[in-house]
Design a protein that fits this description.
It comes from Paenarthrobacter aromaticivorans. The protein has two helices and eleven strands, in the order αββαβββββββββ. It has about 120 residues and is mainly β.
């Protein structure tokens, strides 16, 4: 068992196509290294006001978000959605996606990936 309040967050560390930094925080809760999972990774994500989690895709894994707090703009393929707490977003393998927090509250979300580790992050912006 792992607790987000005990282990804290680390900054996202990816770089976009023009050298821009990915923004947001993550606390991994279930993964191959943490819990021996062989089929998924689950994290708690936090996007601070004004931050943007780069649009990207995973050619080797599907993903989901469950919004716990905040009202982020979710970029999914060619469409954008205004999400709210309680929304669940499924992101099929290979689909471009990202998150923008243009609000005043932290965006809090649970993130799941269909691989326990080592999935590819391919920036699309």
């Amino acid at each position: 068992m792992h607790n987000v309040h005990e282990q804290g967050f680390t900054a996202l560390d990816k770089v976009g196509l023009n050298g821009q930094r990915d923004q947001g925080l993550v606390s991994t809760l279930i993964s191959r290294d943490l819990s021996g999972s062989d089929d998924l990774c689950v994290s708690w994500g936090r996007i601070l006001p004004g931050q943007h989690h780069l649009c990207h895709h995973h050619p080797d894994a599907s993903e989901f978000y469950v919004v716990l707090g905040g009202t982020p703009i979710v970029h999914l393929g060619d469409t954008t959605y205004r999400a709210k707490p309680g929304d669940a977003i499924y992101i099929p393998r290979g689909t471009t996606h990202g998150i923008t927090n243009d609000g005043k509250e932290h965006v809090e979300l649970i993130v799941g990936v269909s691989k326990p580790a080592d999935w590819q992050f391919v920036p699309d912006e």
